Amino acid sequence: MSASKAFVVGWPIGHSRSPLIHRHWLRRHGLAGDYVAEAVPPEAIAGFLGDLGGRGYVGGNVTVPHKEAAFAAVQERTAVAARLGAVNTVWLEDGRLCGDNTDVFGFLANLDEAAPDWRRGGQAVVLGAGGAARAVAYALAEAGFAPVWVLNRSEERAEALVRQIGAPLRAGGLAALPARLAEAAVLVNTTSAGMAGSEPLAIDWSGAGDGLLVTDIVYVPLETPFLAAARRRGLRTVDGLGMLLHQARPGFERWFGLRPDADAALRRAVLADLGG
Ligand code: ATR
User: Fold this and answer.
1) How far, in Å, CA of 6 to CA of 21, rounded?
2) What is the pTM of this model?
3) Rounded to 5°, angle at Cα 138 from 245 and 106
4) Which of 138, 153, 201 is the pocket-test mutation for ligand 1 (most atoms within 8 Å of CB)?
């Protein structure tokens, strides 16, 4: 049997750390497979996903902007992928294309690892209403938080997200944050504010309870301005790199047959790459 080969597909794809992560695990476990980056434009993604076997692939990861297109392309979906309407991991099973969304798993596993006591219930607040916010809000609901407030600059977008996912999510604008912070157990930034030279969100932390756990899904820099501000306020923070590492694990297991660990050596390798 020839060695299994998997991919990450996006447009553009140059920034992806997924090849580094999966090749690290292939080497570590002495497996003969390969994992490569594929740059595929939106008009070609359906054709690409429709013939994975013909291209020599057993499956792969799907990233921006193709997660909805991958959802449409698959013939079978896990329950979480169906609920989110987005697929980030695909594989072939008896010739059928199957899809999962492992962002929810990655988000939960990161907090389970970094803050093992974090599933204490109560309210949660998600800043942002894009694709990442959808997975995070769903994950927080799965972890038992209620309500899960989705607060966004454009409130209509938060309302649309909440309509799609349903209870226990609730929508609001960013102006509602100070009032929500007082009761929140977890606060997550999923906005791109502060990235690529833009201004970070200006947050009034004065109402936050001392037990508030603060996390960001952005991991460049590792301590974002958002996390730095929370730490200065004395709050517990968890960075977003673990979500990237953990979301990769279920896919690797589907394609290569064993579930790898997001261990310290992997974290160091990705951090070195991000710094370089
Ligand atoms: P993704 O799918 O990766 O989550 P996205 O769909 O581009 O990314 O969403 C980016 C999120 O960051 C949105 O919630 C956006 O708010 P709007 O929906 O109002 O555009 C939010 N965002 C980006 N820049 C922001 C800023 N300067 N202030 C507040 N929110 C911002």
Assistant:
1) 12
2) 0.96
3) 10
4) 153
